[in-house]
Fold:
Amino acid sequence: MADGAAKGAQLDALSALLATARDLSVELANDASLGRLLRAFLMLPTEDRDAMAAVLERAAAYRRASEHGAEATGIRLVPNPNPRLYVRVVDPAPSAELTTFAGQDHDELVLAAIRLTKLAVILDRPEMRSEWTPSAVEAFRLVEPKERAAYVRLARYAIELIEAVEREDADDPEPGAPKT
Structure:
């Protein structure tokens, strides 16, 4: 008789588990947002998932709690369509590989300078300036004054180099051609 009761309890537990699985699969099938949420959550690095779950739990609890006072206060919560769940962390010192050009040959450095110049062309477009200027201002506020000063020195030096190239090109019958 005890075996029969144990088997009955096991069958009840299995039945409850299957019912839960069925209900969850129906909910997933009927709610596209839930499926999207689950897929997005699974794309997160494993080590980030606990923090992100806590963020969503707090937001859900806050939203539910605010519903009770919305009529009395006139304040309601709506989803922020542009939230940022990650924050940028600026390390105090650059990595060792960024402090030297060791291991990079002349051609790699030329290509890096070309990429930087092409990026400048993109960032110089008026519609792009309005996009990146606020971010650049924020970034300059986040770095040390000595880092901003180094940036200014580098920008001035780049201007000197460009002006020197332009002077050479003005005297050259084939301006812009690589010098050998």
The chain has two domains: 2-73, 96-171.
